[in-house]
Amino acid sequence: MIIKEIGRGVHGKVKLAEDLDTGELVAIKIVDKQSRRRQLGYSILRAKNYHRQQYHEALDEYNESEQKIRREIAILKKCIHPHVVRLREVIDDPASRKIYLALEYMEGGEILWRDEQNHRPVLSMDQARSIFRDVVSGLDYLHYQGIIHRDIKPANLLLTHDHIVKISDFGVSYFNQHLAGIHSQYDDEIDRELAETAGTPAFFAPELCSSVENYTTQDNRHITKAIDVWALGVTLYCLVYGRCPFTAATEFELFDIIPTAPLVFPTPEEIGFQTPETLKDLFERLLAKQPENRITLEQIKHHPWVVEDLQDPTVWWKEADPTLYKAVEVTDEEVSQAVTIMDRLRKSIRRISSSLVSLTHHFSRHHSKPVVSVSTSLHPLDEEQEKPTWPFQMDRNDSSTSSLSGLVVNFSRSSNNK
């Protein structure tokens, strides 16, 4: 049941809802479907008009892409970690061209990391360090599961009621088979998606600041999980200094600056404190221009600045060890059911309502007053009827937009989660 709207932006609306089965609060992110899969659909139609073989090749590409996306969603739904927002369900409503993501509700909201009036930092050094450790732990787990997030930034770090930080928004994330140690039918394909500039430009790694056409097959292998480490460095810079390390008036200029401009630290006069040498060292290693020179997450965990305020770092190292968690595996059935199609909900509701109607008629023949009252709202998804709370009350007229490009796009078939 939808309770209220709790957020709105270029990526869509977020509404607070209650799971009627458990009473648990969840966040429902409502987004439009992206064009990536739609373009595949257009290629199928074009091929059909010209050549039968081209048509079948395009159709095979479409089906393989859908299967790959479903697998990624199925894996994300099984990722459970103290510093990763849980994806509960993905619901596709073909009638409204919307995707509904049922997410773990984060009561604390986004991290407040700068004063919007003067753009000065508002976090203490210890607060920034604590947040950073939580993100490192969550990101290391995602990489262990084969997931490259691709959009690490302060806006995607959310707080629980007791100030635990969790990574959110997997709309442009990428599942890397080799990173997870998995071999599949997709191993031999040239997947250009990872080289595409998905995410937020100010957080792009230098290796992403070229058009995808400039990446050869040989170059493409260098677009790795190191892009998340770069974004992690930019995020830490924001938390500490209240600004991004590289800025420009336009994205075009920014793409020139990021790969070439030297890293500069604010002066004490600007921010009110002196940057420790250990922190400078960490920034220089996080923001190394060449990905092969960039610090790894394992090295980050042992960096002096990161563990400076811990009495016994070994305790945190053990807690942040991703191998404590089972590597996520998904069955063919879980992949096929990764996305709930709204039509299936309609059919389930109608089956239940039909059973209740039959039960009502049965009792009506034996009692002067019906024992069970059946409302016409049991057919809630018909446009002229009242909408129910099953399991979430969907806003069919939502007009929000989204940057989702990889995971939950264009499941527009009528049959078979910000």
Automatic annotation (TrEMBL):
The answer to whether the entry has keyword ATP-binding is yes
**GO BP term, pick one:** signal transduction
Annotated binding of ATP, by residue: K29
Question: What SMART domains does this protein's entry cite?
Answer: S_TKc
Q: Which PROSITE patterns match?
A: PROTEIN_KINASE_ATP (PS00107), PROTEIN_KINASE_DOM (PS50011), PROTEIN_KINASE_ST (PS00108)
Tell me which family the UniProt entry assigns to this protein: Belongs to the protein kinase superfamily.
Q: What is this protein called?
A: Protein kinase domain-containing protein
* Organism per entry: Rhizopus stolonifer
